[in-house]
Amino acid sequence: MARWKVGLLVSVVFILAVFLRTYRITELPPGLYPDEAMNGNNALEALSTSQPIGGFKLYYPENNGREGLFINIQAIVLKFFMSVSGGLTEPWMLRVTSAFFGSLTVLGIYFLGRELFSRRIGFLASLFLATSFWHILFSRIGFRAIMAPFCLVWGMALLLMAIRKATTTSIPTASTAQNTAARWNWTFSAWTISFLGGVVFGLGFHTYIAYRVAPLLLLAAIPFFRTTPNFWKIAGAFVLGAFLAGLPIGLYYLVHPADFLGRTSQVSIFSSPSPLYALGLNVIKTLGMFFVAGDFNPRHNLVGAPELFFPVAVFFLIGTAIVLKGFWREFSRVFLVLTFLLMMLPVVISNEGLPHALRSILLIPPVMLTAALGAQWAYENISAFARPRIPDMYYASFMQALIATAVVVLTAQAAYTYFVLWANHPDTPGAFAANYVDIGRTIRALPMDVPKYVVMYAGGVDVRGIPTPSQTVMFMTDTFTPDEQIQKNVHYIFPDAIGQVPEGASIFEIR
């Protein structure tokens, strides 16, 4: 396929990806889940106060702890949108950051697929990712995990670009001034690409706990590229970039080792009576989520539906067979196998709510790349079958129509699944605490001098003495801090304090 055609197709796919991740984002998902709101409240506090209580942080310890990079980016985006909305806070303001990183991941997987295999594989992987309901869903929710695939695919793609440059471009060795300049240009270009890739890869340590196994992927590159000209220098630049990017959070964990583990020990299979049995069952559930039954949490999936659209699931099976056949001979195949196994590890050693689409989010890149290999195989076989049976004047049009049909079908299926089936599912509003958002909007519409009392019946993780479900109302009313609560006359109380509510006050219940 000609380079310009691939470029055009990838551009179309990227536009589709942006559309599917931003269309009606002010309405969908409905509501605002308290964990999203917790991010928003930390972001608001970071903007309005300073350390040690507020300010931008490397790690936000409330609500079981979260790495701070995504929240800090949300804060900057939130500040911009609040400045044009008159200071109002809305759920979508927290979610556009996810849409941004989700869309760029679609572009990144094209470059990773191109470096590992070919432009066509990159295009197919980007098409599958762009139209993946699994990825679209998390690209529209304000969870930090969406940044992890972004860092993985872009970091590895840039590293492989730098290695390819070293392999395909000879370094001028003559001592003329012209060749000296060319040598410096080559060195700067290759090392800069590698260093930048390392920085992006290292930022992944600021995103999601499952990302911490990612450095093991780099070891797989050594046997295949160790004889590549200047490989060790390029690898050194990458490692340096990753080290510098990950150093701040690493130093934080060194001082706060308990935060490094987070909830891992609480949900680990090793705390169960039969760890090996639990591990085997978890592996079956995780593998089965691609084909049989996916996540049953309506916040993570169309309840129980497989995570892969049926044709993509078939391509994934075919691609798996292709990858496993002598996979140890090629880095590209070793990379897919190792990435899949490493990213599945944090999922299967957990006993919480499997199959778990969110915790499995780093499986998305290897799955889509593997499915692209299967689709490439199908394309080649269809081409071989059609070539002798279709006149030459119609053959090219037939194959182009085949690609166009695939784009249309995959896009239509993704849009229908998200905007019709999932959006109108009766469990979806409750999964995102839509009623809490309604309470928040009602409270902020009341006059400032009217006392507003929020009675917290619902339990949850304690955040500064208040259960997590209250975070949604706090974000919608911008009353996370005591000063804001006093200023806006909003009070958060427990049921046993209802008798202290003055006459004339408005009472709201969080159940």
Briefly characterize the structure:
It contains 20 helices and 7 strands. The chain has helices at about 5-20, 35-50, 70-85, 90-115, 120-130, 135-140, 145-170, 175-205, 215-225, 230-255, 255-260, 275-290, 310-325, 330-350, 365-385, 390-420, 430, 435-445, 470-475, 480-485, and strands at about 60, 65, 450-455, 460-465, 465, 490-495, 505-510. The longest helix is centred in the C-terminal third of the chain and has 31 residues, at about 390-420.
Descriptive report:
The protein has 511 residues and is mainly α. It is built from 20 helices and seven strands. The chain has a three-stranded parallel beta sheet with strand order 6-3-7. Strands 1-2 form a two-stranded antiparallel ribbon. A two-stranded antiparallel ribbon has the order 4-5. β4 (462-463) and β5 form a beta hairpin. α3 (69-84) crosses α4 (92-116), α7 (147-168) runs antiparallel to α10 and α14 (331-348) crosses α15 (364-386). The model has no long low-confidence stretch (mean pLDDT 92).
